[in-house]
Amino acid sequence: GYTPVEPHIMIVQQPIAAPPDQMQTVPYKLVTHAYRRQLPEVKTTDYLMAIWLQPWIKEQGAHDVLYLWEGAVTECPRSNFFIISQHNTLVTSANGMLQGITRANILSVAKDSMAVEERTLTLEDIRTAKEAFISSSTKR
Q: Taking the CB of residue 42, how many other CB atoms lie within 10 A of it?
């Protein structure tokens, strides 16, 4: 059975290197996969699906996976997803994902200079978008 224990804390410190020059000019390619994390609103270290998908992601020539759930775009394993629509509106998913700190900061700053929507995001929205990007505090 499961026996709760006293928690232990481990802190690992590493310097974060600047991204390689090619990351500045080469598009960051995502592939889609139907999946929803068990508790998507909670920050956890459950990246099992993302790890399991790594060989397939590489076969597709992609950098990461973008999760879909019931036709809605939700998130990447360690980042939030955004588009800029044809009407210059910043759009990001409203539900089914971790509402990250960097995401909140982007939305806060963007509201001062453009329209912002938090709503269900679809693949069709991505196909017609002017731009798309991800955000993360921890992704290298």
A: 9
Q: Is the pTM of this model over 0.70?
A: yes
What's the total number of domains in the chain?
Answer: 1
DSSP of 20-72: PHHHHHS---EEEEE---SSTTS-----HHHHHHHHHHHHTT-SEEEEEETTE
Determine the structural domain holding residue 105 and report its residue range: 28-135
Q: In this structure, what CATH number is given to the domain that contains residue 83?
A: 3.20.10.10
Give the model confidence (pLDDT) of 56-108 as tens digits.
999 999 999 999 999 999 999 999 999 999 999 999 999 999 998 999 999 99
Nearest residue to 94 via CA among 77, 66, 110, 116:
116
* Residue 95 domain flag: yes
In the β-sheet with 90-93, what is the strand arrangement from edge to edge? 116-119, 90-93, 80-84, 131-135
At CA 4, angle to CA 38 and CA 8, rounded to 5? Answer: 90
